[in-house]
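tool_call: predict_structure(chain=1)
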Amino acid sequence: MFDDDPRWGSDPRERDDDARDRDPVDPREIFVNQLDLPRGHERELVRDRDREYTLRGSESRTLSLVGVFRVIPARDLQDHKGQPCDPRKGDLRHLREQGLVRTIPLAGHRQGVVVLTERGKDLLESDRRQHTGSRDREGRGGGKDDDWRQRFYAELKKPREVEHDSQIYRACERAAERLEEERGVRVDRIVLDYELKSEYQRFLQEHNRGRADSDGRPDRDPSEIREWAFDHDLKYSDGHVQFPDARIEYQEPDGRWDHLDVEVVTVHYRGARGAAARGSGGSIFRGSSARTGSAPFDPDHAEGLLR
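tool_result:
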């Protein structure tokens, strides 16, 4: 498939070596690179409407990561010294005192988890870089989506599932590292299940929109739902669409766009939901449960199944 691309040799082994020789991109830097926020070691003044903040590069990175993944354990974030963040001091304390993040206690996590406030989300939205060029995401695997920018989130969406959701970042980080190291791809965006499910609901309710006589019930038949799932590269089974925890969208060295779906299955993620996760395809990571007192999720020892 790379035969017409001058960047690749004719020998597959040469192509693999070329991909490995490319400078690796730190997955933690992907999203802050899309923002006009400070990148240096010293704090700089940032203005957002009528508010002023001071940020340094590590704090900009923390804001971008927490905004993308909604909730991240403090220990999984790094401060300006390259050490795990501590909510009581340093970067996280500074961000919290400025009203940009909240830290939430979680059983089994000494430092708790971190979420953006609405003010923190507003800052990220205001400081997006202007994307250049265009990208065709129409067709199988991406659907048609005119707004393909990275989405940011604030506050907890599902407090009961915070233990599970807090492990999605580590799973995606490890999966992104593998993709970049082994295949030389460029990770571009993370799509959480909220976004996919929201798009699905818009599809289900499309015929009801603007109708005063609508009873609010979707009128899509199974064949239409199956086709929607196929167009978005999602599994359809027994009349239901199965959604991954996250989707990593990336660009291959030859310019093609593709994605990898990621699922985290914890001890308490069982029953129908656990079965759906295992049946969704993509990359499955077996996480830990804070309530059991087990060790923190270690992606290096996780079970990864790349599609």
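agent: Residues 4 and 254 are 9 Å apart (CA to CA). Proceeding to next step.
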